[in-house]
Every structure is written in structure tokens, then in C-alpha cells.
């Protein structure tokens, strides 16, 4: 299962913001116990980083990445002003390729997330499972409601400070800089999480994760580094894709509203049109192959909304970042000021306008 990007290593940086919150819900008792059991199973298998580095069953390549994760976590806390935690001070070797499996859904004739509500985190557009078959059962039940669905595996998740999140073996897959991005991304969630604002939370983590990864390697390898060049190209491609998906989501929303009587054939044509626009107008601008398969996947509303959650309107964060002259600490302080805002995306735009007048 892929997740947003299509080059396998790159999917690691986009993970589920929270999972433990799902275990706190009393909405469905069976789900509660199964989720709690899955969480506790992972936590019970933790070993210290030192123990992992001495374990002969763990490959030298994985040990190298474990050391890299420690370096990245320290960088996130000391150089970027992200919250200091005891996360990633332990390690868990999973017996599966993903940490968890997440289901999203949406109505067929409206670009609106099907959501679940949980204590502490509020309303979220996804539901997580530690067992893939259970996730598939959930997806089938949503499809029976005539909803579009999307099921994917995620390699990392954050418990938002409830537990000391371990480094997971699933996080070590892929390239080094994807691991660094994942660590920074998840540390952003531990630093700032606004209830019932999944879109804002994920986009903020994507933006800071991308910036932080490039900064990490600039310090580590210098500006002439091949890794820095690659990360920069990937980040530029994300900006290009963000501009594309923002525009297309807005236009599709307008099309649904303007055409109350639609057919499956018309809807499928709209999806194909979106992919054709990408293929002819945006793909040629890209410097990497990370999004090259977008033109070939099977689109539906649930999948498009997932792109929207993580990738739309990233330019708003860039505008604020530029207005504070690239000061990541000040940027974080400004974002934290939106903690109590019920609509942080709108609050961010107001913040940008107020910053312009300074």
C-alpha cells in the first residue's frame, strides 16, 4: 500500500498524526480493547537503543539508521526548537511492514471527509488499526455505506506525549533522509497539535519536516552535498504538487456543487481530467520521480482528500515562514499562537496579513 507519494522510501515521512487517541475511545468497546491491546503489544516489546545496538539479530545497516535517528531527534530538539521528549530512546522490531493500517472515507458526490470523533484529539479523518484484516473489514463496512475509501499502511505514529514513542523497525525502511524527515515530522506533532484540525496539523508537520530535513543535511554534509541537492529537489516538487492539488481540489469542489445531477461516468472523467492536467502541465516541471505515478492511480474522493489533508495550501506556511525571515523558532511561536483557534487555517491567513503590516 502506498501513501501519498509513490516512490516507496518517500512514503515514510507521511504518517498518522495520532494512534493512541483511538485506543481511548469508548465509542466501540471491541475496538477499544483491540486498539489498546495493539498499543500495549508494541510498548511491551521496547528495548533501549543501547540494547538494540548490541543485538546481533539487528543488521549493521539498521543499526546505522538507528544511530541516525538519534542524531535527527537531537537536532529537532536542539536546533529547531521542537519539544524535548523521551521519544525514540527505545526500539521495537515489528513483525510486519507497517506500524498500523489507516482507513479514510468520503461521500461519492462531495469532497468532504467522513470523520470519527475521539477524546482529546477531537474529529479526525482517519481510523487506525494494528491489524490489517480488521482495517479491511472497516473499509468494507464503509464501502457498504456507498462511500469512497482508501486503506494504507503507515510506518510511524505519534501518541502526542501519552507514551514515550519508540523507534519502530518500519521507520528504517527507505533512504536515510526519509527517516530524518519522519523523526522531525512526528516531533512536530508532539510539539503542537490542535484538536479537530487534522489538515492544519499534518500540513504543518509536512512543512517543518521538509525544511528541517534539508537544514539537517546542510549542517551535516554541507551545501555541496548530493543528499542536500536531492532533498531540495524533492521539496521543490512537493511545492509544485501542492499548488496542483490545491487548485484541483477547489475546482472539483465547485464542480460537485454546480452539478447536482451527476453520473459515475462523469465523475470518472473528472478524475481522468485531473490526472491529465498533472501529466501535461505539472509532471514536466518536476525534478524527481516521486509523483510520477499520480497519473496512473485509481482516484476517488477519499484518496484526493488525503492529498488535501497533507499537501494543500502549503504555500500559506511558506508565506509566514518568509515573513519571519526563515526563523524557525519564531515561525513555531507564531503557529503556536493558533492553538486555541477553532479554524487554524483561517487563523494562519490572518496571521500572515497581520505580519505583513509589521
Helix content: 40-55%
Q: What's the total count of β strands?
A: 8
State the low-pLDDT regions, or none. 1-14, 17-27
Strand content is: 5-15%
Note the main sheet: 3 strands, mixed
**How many structural domains does the protein architecture include?**
1
Roughly what is the average pLDDT, rounded to an integer?
90
* N-end to C-end Cα span: 46 Å
Radius of gyration: 20 Å
The H-and-E topology, N to C, reads as: HHEHHEEEEEHEEHHHHHHHH
What is the count of helical runs? 13
Strand order of the largest sheet: 1-2-8
Outline: globular
- The oligomerization state is single chain
Which SSEs are present, and which pair or pack?
Layout: H1 20-23, H2 29-44, E1 47-48, H3 49-54, H4 60-78, E2 90-92, E3 100-107, E4 116-118, E5 122-124, E6 127-129, H5 132-144, E7 147-154, E8 167-168, H6 176-191, H7 198-221, H8 226-258, H9 264-282, H10 301-311, H11 314-323, H12 328-336, H13 344-356
Structure description:
The protein contains 13 helices and eight strands. The chain has one domain. α4 runs parallel beside α6, α8 packs across α10 and α11 runs parallel beside α13. It has 358 residues and is mainly α. The N terminus is likely disordered. β4 and β5 form a beta hairpin. Helices cover 54% and strands 9% of the residues. The strands form three sheets. The protein has a three-stranded mixed beta sheet. Strands 6-3-7 form a three-stranded antiparallel beta sheet. It has a two-stranded antiparallel ribbon with strand order 4-5.
Amino acid at each position: 500500500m502506498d501513501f501519498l507519494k509513490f516512490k516507496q522510501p518517500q512514503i515514510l515521512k507521511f504518517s498518522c498524526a495520532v494512534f493512541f487517541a483511538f485506543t481511548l475511545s469508548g465509542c466501540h468497546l471491541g475496538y477499544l480493547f483491540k486498539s489498546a491491546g495493539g498499543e500495549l503489544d508494541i510498548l511491551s516489546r521496547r528495548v533501549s537503543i543501547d540494547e538494540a545496538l548490541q543485538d546481533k539479530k539487528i543488521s549493521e545497516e539498521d543499526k546505522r539508521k538507528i544511530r541516525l535517528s538519534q542524531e535527527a531527534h537531537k537536532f529537532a530538539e536542539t536546533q529547531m526548537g521542537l519539544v524535548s521528549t523521551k521519544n525514540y530512546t527505545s526500539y521495537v522490531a515489528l513483525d510486519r511492514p507497517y506500524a498500523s493500517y489507516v482507513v479514510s472515507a468520503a461521500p461519492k458526490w462531495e469532497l468532504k471527509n467522513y470523520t470519527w470523533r475521539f477524546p482529546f484529539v477531537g474529529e479526525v479523518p482517519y481510523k487506525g488499526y494494528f491489524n490489517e484484516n480488521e482495517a479491511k473489514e472497516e473499509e468494507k463496512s464503509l464501502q457498504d455505506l456507498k462511500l469512497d475509501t482508501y486503506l494504507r499502511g503507515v510506518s510511524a505514529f505519534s501518541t502526542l506525549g501519552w507514551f514515550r514513542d519508540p523507534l519502530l523497525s518500519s521507520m528504517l525502511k527507505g533512504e536515510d533522509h526519509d527517516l530524518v524527515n519522519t523523526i522531525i515530522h512526528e516531533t512536530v506533532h508532539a510539539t503542537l497539535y490542535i484538536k479537530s484540525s487534522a489538515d492544519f496539523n499534518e500540513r504543518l508537520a509536512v512543512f517543518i519536516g521538509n525544511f528541517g530535513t534539508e537544514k539537517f543535511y546542510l549542517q551535516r554534509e554541507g551545501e555541496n552535498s548530493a543528499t542536500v541537492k536531492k532533498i531540495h529537489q524533492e521539496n521543490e516538487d512537493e511545492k509544485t504538487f501542492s499548488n496542483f492539488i490545491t487548485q484541483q481540489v477547489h475546482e472539483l469542489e465547485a464542480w460537485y456543487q454546480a452539478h447536482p445531477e451527476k453520473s459515475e461516468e462523469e465523475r470518472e472523467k473528472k478524475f481522468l481530467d485531473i490526472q491529465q492536467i498533472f501529466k501535461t502541465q505539472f509532471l514536466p516541471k518536476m525534478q524527481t520521480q516521486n509523483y510520477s505515478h499520480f497519473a496512473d492511480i485509481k482516484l476517488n474522493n477519499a484518496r484526493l482528500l488525503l492529498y488535501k489533508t497533507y499537501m494543500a495550501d502549503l504555500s500559506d506556511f511558506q508565506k509566514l515562514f518568509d515573513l519571519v525571515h526563515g526563523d524557525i523558532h519564531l515561525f513555531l511561536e507564531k503557529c503556536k499562537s493558533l492553538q486555541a483557534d477553532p479554524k487554524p487555517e483561517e487563523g494562519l491567513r490572518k496571521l500572515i496579513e497581520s505580519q505583513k503590516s509589521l
